[in-house]
Amino acid sequence: MLIDNADHRKYVATGLLIVLGVFLLYLLRIFFLALFGAYVFSFMFAPVYVWLKRKIGRDEVAALLTVFLILVVALVPLLTVCYVAFNQALTLQDKFDPQDFSVLFERFSPKVRASLDATLERLIQHFFTRVTEAASLGLQCRFEPGVVALCDVLRDVLHLHELPLRRHPVH
After folding, report:
1. Fewer beta carbons within 10 angstroms: which end of the chain, N or C?
2. Please, how many CA atoms are within 13 Å of residue 44, restricted to the half-sphere of its CB?
3. What's the pLDDT tens digit per position in 123-159?
């Protein structure tokens, strides 16, 4: 039993539409959170818009003032938090002394220090193993040189030169 041309075209067209629809949803997944936020803000600030529209009498001006109010309500707290966090980071940077960490580490008992050393070495070995496995599988990306440089720095700092790390050229 052969499928005639018209039925075959319908199936192909339906399949293509489904594939394109899934692809479109995949591409638009980034915007769904923003759309949901806009939906929530529109319901939250609808009474403000209606009140401004009644007071001012013009839709455009009321809409513009409502958008401005939304930006102020959303951005001012966000910028304030960022400003405070940035200033605290600058203060911490000024007060930072690397010797504080070594003194803190020396205060641990030898048993705790040995446990921390062993845990750190296992963590670094696991990290090197994962990077080596990814490189051996040919999983190349533009970040690999940075990862290899990070591994080299960690190996030098922790004196772990016996750990092998294969390097593959980045394509």
Report:
1. N
2. 11
3. 777 777 776 666 666 554 444 555 555 655 555 555 5
